[in-house]
Amino acid sequence: MKQIVITVSAYYLDRLDVVAENLREEGVTITRLYEFGVIIGYAEETTIDKIRHRKEIASLTDEKEAAVSPPEEDVQ
Predict the structure, then answer these.
(1) Are 60 and 6 in contact (CB under 8 A)?
(2) What number of other Cβ atoms are within 10 A of residue 51's Cβ?
């Protein structure tokens, strides 16, 4: 499973509990739910791919996207 951070579209903030329940039904394990529209949780890669373009989601970041690659050469 990967950790994900979801930002809910402003249009759906008044229905945040419904959005969260729909994500749970899709297989997202929610660990934090903030009133201002940020959901933190875990999901399998297939679930992430399935929910990434839902209209309720303004953005979705998973650990792969958030990872920083080391430089190719050592900096002295």
Answers:
(1) yes
(2) 19
Q: Is the pLDDT of residue 54 over 50?
A: yes
Helix, strand or coil, per DSSP, at residue 16: helix
Contact assessment for residue 62 and residue 4, using Cβ atoms and an 8 Å cutoff: yes
Q: Which residue has the tokens 């373009």?
A: 53
Q: Element (H or E) spanning 7, and its range?
A: strand 2-8
Strand arrangement, sheet containing 38-43: 29-34, 38-43, 2-8, 57-62
DSSP state string for 25-72: HHT-EEEEEETTTEEEEEE-HHHHHHHTT-TTEEEEEEHHHH--PPPS
* Dist. CA 42–CA 38, nearest whole Å: 13
Q: Against a cut of 0.90, is the pTM above it?
A: no
